Amino acid sequence: MIKFSDRLNNMEESATLAMSRLSRELKQQGKDVISLSLGEPDFATPSFIEDAAIEGMKEGYTKYPPVPGYDDLRQAICDKFQRDNNLHYEINQVVVSTGAKQSIANVVLSIINPGDEVLVPAPYWVSYIEIVKLAGGIPISIPSSIENDYKVTGKQVEEKISNKTKLFIFSTPCNPTGSLYSKEELKELANVFAKYKDIVIISDEIYEHINFSGKHESIAQFPEVYNQTVVVNGLSKAWAMTGWRLGYIGAPKEIAAACTKMQGQFTSGANSIAQRAAIAALRKETSYLKEMISAFKNRRDIVYKGLLEIKGLHVNLPKAAFYFFPDISDLFGKTTPKGQVIQTSNDLSTYILDEVLVALVPGEAFGNPNSIRISYATDEATLTEALRRIKIAIEKLK
Ligand code: PMP
Ligand code: GLU
Questions:
Q1: Are 36 and 360 in contact (CB under 8 A)?
Q2: How remote is the CA of residue 194 from the centroid of ligand 2, in Å?
Q3: Whose CA is nearest to atom 3 of ligand 2?
Q4: C-alpha distances in Å from residue 180, one per residue of 2, 186, 303, 351
């Protein structure tokens, strides 16, 4: 019998991917499932990006690329950081990877030794914790609640810092809450980390462009933490390029060199054709994204209205990304028509899937068992139908 490693056995399957697998399986069995489980834009990749990929193939970009990415792509990323974020990076501070997920894994595996602590505000994106555990690190979560829009303060963070703290990982805009840290809130966090120069900050900004509330702010803008901050970004969300698998970092050059060394042994670098496509995307003016952002905003408004009509949910209005994370704890203790008592977010998502065939992701996976994640990266008619079904299921709870 094959005996698998403790490393694998201790790892949870990605809950987002698990839910989307389950909905795919149910659909294959002919069930009319609506999946609001995956954070994947339903838009097609813009055709000018596809054309750039085809062009790249024809030009012979089909060989091993340089491990940190082609120089002209890394230059396009530096120019993007300057244009959109007013951040200055040289190309030796940029590493291109197989998705933002790998970018994060590279940094964590480069920095964390067994026993090191990593601070992660909760709710957090599912994969942070498992990547930290893979490196032998100890995730220390910093709880927040819907009352403070699921954000943490500098004071809360500082209370958790110990002499073992090596990393802080957060996302803004946030998956799963759609919250956005303001410049002032980021400054407050920066003031704390400026006192602890050997703590590295991973600022996951993959939802940067899907923002309904003004300018995107990065913690890297503050000179006092620039040299300890890694900005993670990628093409999956804004450019609807989830399958192309392309992400990148802007980082202090020692960290960029470490990540290059790391991925030199794992992947040899990101797909050459996707890299050519990424140059076209990053060189495009972001005004191109206006229509997509406004479609997401309309969807957000539809879902917000629908959720407010369901008794037992506490809902905040997300300012960015494409998720709602309503607090469902008022439903705990209620009984389903089959006589099962809802005790957890897991129970509720299983019940909603069984009863009305809508797939959501339970809050446990994001470090907040009182809530449930709804992804609205799908069309308005499907969202309206999904909300109708969720309302029916919740109204049946007694
Ligand atoms: N960070 C967050 C917060 C995400 O939601 C995702 C979702 N895919 C990623 C990173 C990873 O993105 P990628 O597809 O570039 O690996
Ligand atoms: N990030 C997306 C989500 O949270 C995609 C799934 C994944 O990469 O885990 O649903």
A1: yes
A2: 31
A3: 39
A4: 45, 10, 18, 31
Q: What is the DSSP string of 82-143?
A: HHHH-----GGGEEEESSHHHHHHHHHHHHPPTT-EEEEESS--HHHHHHHHHTT-EEEEE-
Q: DSSP code of 333?
A: T
Distance 382 CA to ligand 1 centre (A): 23
Strand pairing partners for 121?
142
- Mean pLDDT computed over every residue of the chain: 96
Residues above pLDDT 70, as percent of the chain: 100
Strand duo 247-250 + 94-97: pairing: antiparallel
Q: Which atom of ligand 2 is nearest to the CA of 99?
A: 8
pTM of the predicted protein model: 0.96
Residue type present at position 46: P
Contacts of residues 149-152 at CB distance under 8 Å and 24 or more positions apart, as own/partner, are: 149/177, 149/179, 149/316, 150/123, 150/174, 150/177, 150/179, 150/316, 150/325, 150/368, 151/121, 151/179, 151/181, 151/185, 152/121
The pick from 12, 17, 171, 360 for probing ligand 2's pocket by mutation, whose C-beta has the most ligand atoms within 8 angstroms, reads 17
Which residue carries 């082609």 as its tokens? 70
366 and 125 Cβ atoms separated by less than 8 Å:
yes
149-208 residue pLDDT tens: 999 999 999 999 999 999 999 999 999 999 999 999 999 999 999 999 999 999 999 999
Query: Ligand 1: distance of its center to the CA of 282 in Å?
Result: 17
